[in-house]
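Hi P.,

Sorry for the delay on this. The queue was packed all week, but I finally got your sequence through. Input first:
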Amino acid sequence: MTTSPPSAADHVDVVQAQWRRVRPDLDVAPLGVIGRLHRVAAALTERLVETYAQFGLSGAEFDLLATLRRSGARGELPAGELAAHTMVTTGGLTKRVDRLAARGLVARTGADDDGRRRLVRLTPAGRALIDDAMAAHVANERRLLDELGDADATALEPVLRRWLGVLEGQTAGPRPE
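Then the structure:
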């Protein structure tokens, strides 16, 4: 685990100072949190996508394969349910499934109980790929969190969970005093 002291000023500090200079009437304090979270999310996304690319996957393809893999022993879901779990339109899902099917990583099948209902299922090659990619993904996330340090990562998780619940309209629960 490595931790480095924060620098005296970062990009967000500079932006806040610029806004304070040109618009002293605005409270730009929220930029300190939101701006940094936005920049952290962008930086994390870059590092996550690098790992997916090692397996020939985009972030969206990784998400789709991972969703199928964690869905149960058969590694399959109805297309509509898969679209909901991956937060894409059915049109967007169709394009992703087409690309993955062309690579032999997923297959479309009819449901056993209703031949009209279409399922998307991992192939053995898709299962092997997502298992390897997921192991690398988790190791990458561990490395990224280790850069932050155990105490900060542990403190950050409940705050982010509560805030995400608020933003997604879930019950936020009591605020710590």
